[in-house]
Amino acid sequence: MIMRIFQVLVRSGKEAEFSKFFHETAIPLMQRTKGIAQVLPGAPRPDSPREFSFVMIWEDLESLKAFVGEDYTTPHIDPAEAELVESRVIKHYDLVAG
Question: Record's InterPro entries (predicted)?
């Protein structure tokens, strides 16, 4: 299994607009995406009010590539999100069963 951690820094002043997109569009989309075993969305905390994240557990690399394409190391961007986000970070790990 592949752990994909996706973090965004929202443009200043766009926090409420991105939060609406995150809760109404991004989370439901990821929860119904084939190949994802688990979705853990993360909302901002008071000390980081512009940061949102997803930890996604993908069944395998083939499922991830089917969703984002061959270049899975590049963040998959929804057009509605593009103007709201200042920067993105994406990382991948092999999931360690505990």
Answer: Dimeric_a/b-barrel (IPR011008)
